[in-house]
Amino acid sequence: MFYDLCLQGDDVDAFLQRDRVAMAVRLGFDCVATSHAVNDRLVDRDRCTQQPIEAATLAAVGPGVAEALRSQQGLIRNGGAAPRQLAQLSRLTVALEEAAAAAQLLGASNPITASYDLLAVQPLSERVFQQACTALDVDVITFDMARRLPFRLRPGPLQAAVARGVHLEICYSAALRDEIARRNFFSNASAVVRAARGHGIIVSSGARAAFELRGPYDVMNLVTLCGLTEQQAKAALSERCRQVARHAEKRKAHKGVLTIVSVPAEAGLDSPSNVPSTCYMYT
Amino acid sequence: MVRFKNRVLLVELIWKDGRIDETLTEANIQSVLRESIALNFGDYGLGICLASQQVKYYNPLTNLCIVRCGREQYKGVLASMTTITTFRYRTVMMHLLHNGGTLASCQRAAIDHNRAVLQNMRLTQAQQKLANEAEEKLQALEL
């Protein structure tokens, strides 16, 4: 299982999104998350409207996609015919500068935040960074890799974040843009790896277009140049991302264990009189 | 004295426009790849790679490419391939399919991949000939 937990979701039309997800499938990813980015405040418009793309639509995109969907491991080991399940998640990325607004903005009671699967924060100041690492109830802390970081990453808070189960994100698409962005990418990525000692790091694309994605093994190799070991690099695209998804589930569940799932009325229960509109599920 | 060890990378080129360009050869890819290594790792990095780095095979129909390089430097070479975005003014992406220690294992993977891709393609007569030639060339590759 390979995950790509950040595709830039703003200013993207349906065709571009379809192409991008199809390309991710073709390259061997099994789970993608599309990210909606906001600055400092949430308005009602920011509620999640993303719809997962159906497999049939994806398979029609081009050569390689249908085969990749059909086989377990992409084209080259085309032996098994087991269908691959593509998971599509939604994600909210909040860029924050003011520490004061953060807690209520990202609280579980906020219905807009709750409409997304994953929640990420991008700290723009030292204060917010501290707060995000030690207190905020988020899944991922992300950084703008294409620019110089506005503050120094200190190991203390970062390791506190890792200990809490909050993951740090490296987005590699900056390395594929221009030279300056690439320099900053290597600088920032190695700073993150160094400060966190390689623990608790996930790698995702942050791609705006289909051709800003890369295959999982290419990405692993790229981040080993930033100081991750090969095992850590592999975990950063698979294990760690699964933990992020689990963390998000737990964050959204009541007291971390109980989820409420609404069941459609015609779900197969016999007597319509006592059909429950919701049921409870232990996660 | 330990023998010199290589890595052989099997890479698929994915073109944005999906056009087949039969004029593209190993030498073109070699030059683009070297430019990218020089851009990312400078003259020193390129110099270290030069001794063993070579594009062994390219098939313009299935967009398959085999690159050999020294084992110490393969990470740099692969990263340079990853950061290539354009090639002759066309957007491209290089996708690693197999990373082997010998040419033979790559050859096997390449033959499988070629078959899988060619099955789904409709070729003209000239292209069929080209495909056969490419297949023969692949079979005849030697380190």
Automatic annotation (TrEMBL), chain A:
<dbReference type="InterPro" id="IPR002738">
    <property type="entry name" value="RNase_P_p30"/>
</dbReference>
<keyword id="KW-0819">tRNA processing</keyword>
<protein>
    <recommendedName>
        <fullName>PHP domain-like protein</fullName>
    </recommendedName>
</protein>
<dbReference type="Pfam" id="PF01876">
    <property type="entry name" value="RNase_P_p30"/>
</dbReference>
<comment type="similarity">
    <text>Belongs to the eukaryotic/archaeal RNase P protein component 3 family.</text>
</comment>
<dbReference type="InterPro" id="IPR016195">
    <property type="entry name" value="Pol/histidinol_Pase-like"/>
</dbReference>
From TrEMBL, chain B:
<dbReference type="InterPro" id="IPR002759">
    <property type="entry name" value="Pop5/Rpp14/Rnp2-like"/>
</dbReference>
<comment type="function">
    <text>Component of ribonuclease P, a protein complex that generates mature tRNA molecules by cleaving their 5'-ends.</text>
</comment>
<keyword id="KW-0539">Nucleus</keyword>
<dbReference type="InterPro" id="IPR016819">
    <property type="entry name" value="RNase_P/MRP_POP5"/>
</dbReference>
<comment type="similarity">
    <text>Belongs to the eukaryotic/archaeal RNase P protein component 2 family.</text>
</comment>
<protein>
    <recommendedName>
        <fullName>Ribonuclease P/MRP protein subunit POP5</fullName>
    </recommendedName>
</protein>
<dbReference type="Pfam" id="PF01900">
    <property type="entry name" value="RNase_P_Rpp14"/>
</dbReference>
<dbReference type="InterPro" id="IPR038085">
    <property type="entry name" value="Rnp2-like_sf"/>
</dbReference>
<keyword id="KW-0819">tRNA processing</keyword>
